[in-house]
Amino acid sequence: MNDLKPTDTPARSDLSWRLLLGAWLLLLVVLKLWDMAPPRVVDAQAAPEQFSAERARTDLQVLTRAPRPSGTPSHREAREYLLRRLSELGLKAEVQSTSVVGTWWGLPYDAAHVDNVVARLPGTDSTGAVLLMAHYDSVPHSPGAGDDAAGVAVLLETLRAMQAMGALRNDVIFLFTDAEEAGALGAQAFHAQHPWARDVGVVLNFDSRGTSGAAVVYETSKGNARLIQALAESVPRPVASSLVQEVARRLGHSTDLRVFREAGVPGMNVGFSDSPSHYHTAQDRLDQLDLRSVQHLGMYALALGRTFGDSDLRQLPAEDAVFFDVLLGRMVRYPAYLALPFAALIVLAHLAVTLRARRSGAVTFRGIALSALGFLAIIVITTVATGALLFVLRRVDPSLVLMRDPYEATWYRLGLTGTGAGVTAALYRLLRRWRGPEEVALGALVPWSVGLAASSVLAPGASYFFAWPLAGALAGFVALSWARRTGRSFVAFGVLLLAAVPVIAVAVPAPFLLFVALQMQRGFLAVAAVALLMGALLPQFELLGAGRSFRPAGLLAFVGVAMLGVALGRAGFSAEKPRPTGLTYAVDQASGQAWWLTTDAEPPPAQARLFPSQTARPGPGVLSPYDSDSVTRAGSAPVESLPAPTVELLHEEPVGPGRRLRFKVRSPRQAPELTVFVSSEATVVRARIDGRDVVESPPHLSNERQPWGFRYLGVPSEGFELVLELAEARPIELRVIDRTYSLPGSHAAPDLMSVPFYLAGSTFNSQRFRF
């Protein structure tokens, strides 16, 4: 077979054509990455009707002074600041102060005293209310700049801009929820108990899990076609795809939006997620927050708030849509019911192209089958090789072991992508020794057709990822095949250039999204997506010489290794990049003992002296039984003089063969968090926490392996009431643990930070009671 050469343009060398094609592919990738980058910051002197992240920075400076866990003084200060700011902006805000119980995550249940801040901007002829929502609490030890002070500041700046533009048709409710980190409890309380909740026609929730990157629509409610229409028509440079929605729905993603989504209220989640090493840590600070990400988030809030503010919210429910962003800030969208017909057409086109190539003698069915198996083997080998490389890197850089994503995540992503692409290209060169370029190109598209057929039935929102790159790849194959038969390279070259557009515009974000969603420990799966993507560009790679030489593979691998070298050169912990550590202090008032505990496999040197030898871990009840499995080491500790939590029996009465008990639970040391669980065997038939019923079915048999219990955040100074109805009349034992978010003594170090947030850097104080 003849190679694809520009025979009708002899003035240009093969090298010129390859350079042009390489430059074109690089340009497309750069354009796509530019689309995925946040916009520039609008300064504070901009027109008043514009959103300005620089103006929002003023609110961020106040909100991020300290961590804001529910029930703490800094949490109260943040709430008071919100009330003052809303008053300055001309709205009368109110605090919804109530208790709530959540069972969504299962045992231990979540309960809290919440203080939501809510205000309403009236419309001229409201058809329902637009709800703009963000949570103002944070996890312990984290200033919560990205999660979610950014969302709170965005709402305040959006309100200011809306008032500068004049009245909207619909009311706009600004809801600053409490206890989102405890399981979306503030949103649950608003939806279930606040009278304004019944007016809500659409929800826009702003919640992020990083400190940089583009703001992305990462979740919508079902029947989202009109939501996506508003997104595409109003937001400059939106970043969104129905593939992300399909993944989010299957992962059971939980934010404040979940409460409204499950109730059938239309809505969407918007947030940024890069720099994931900062998420839920002390590094989620204002100086780490990219204001461009805040600007992008604010552009969504203002544009969508205005659009829905002037829409008939009664017309929002619709069918699901398939949607995705392409290049230059444009979006493609169509009804989800078209996914299957589109898939059928493209799969039939794949079949027709294959049959045509077979009749021309360019390929055989056996050759295509062997090539398909060969390319699947390439994907598998590339994935395994990347996993092996990560295994080696973990031995060199401890951050890859100790963190879900390392500080140098960007360099590692680029490095793994480059080395993975190099391995794929090298294996393609080997496969080309046995099969022709057309057979390999068609064989590499078999996984795409299979993925398209499966996704169009099982997950229509994901089908576009396979459909449009496959269509582009088929066009590229036709160009390659036609040029090899006719020698008309000039036209074929133009088709090859155009055929790369849908592949890169649609498929390039997938590896990045997988890196973010799966984290670095499973980054080999993102590299598998890179290998799959390269299979759709084999005609272009063939022209670049990848089928005849190892040079393209070597170049890709060289770039990847260089990026990994940069990552390793920047690796290491310091005061700017502190090491996570799970040091915890626990005291058991019943036994008079105390322990240092850690979740670290190997404690850092500054803490090693606390664990001179392996001490037996404390017995059940010192920590929540749902947390104690995380403990890896224990060391004896001095017993701090702490007042124990108390449980007072207020009333007892028989109920059938069992009994009902009413207690008052308190923390004399005013701890913001209490955990209560039944540590003896008992069947809990009904329960009521702080006046709220615990809805569970069937009754729970509490035992040592899975005790019935709950965690209460924002504990009032006077405590709360607990009512338990038991199926049996035998005695019951309760364990109560209060928690404060600091360690006794001085164990802080500038190069250490407390992680995980639900255990580390805390003092747990337990007592047992028998009734």
UniProtKB/TrEMBL annotation:
GO terms for molecular function: metalloexopeptidase activity. GO terms for biological process: proteolysis. The chain crosses the membrane at residues 334-355, 367-391, 411-428, 440-459, 465-483, 490-517, 523-541, 553-573. Keywords: Hydrolase, Membrane, Transmembrane, Transmembrane helix. It comes from the Bacteria. InterPro entries: M28_fam, Peptidase_M28. Residues 116-303 form the Peptidase M28 domain. Residues 612-638 are annotated as: Disordered. Pfam families: Peptidase_M28. This is M20/M25/M40 family metallo-hydrolase. The lineage of its organism: Bacteria, Pseudomonadati, Myxococcota, Myxococcia, Myxococcales.
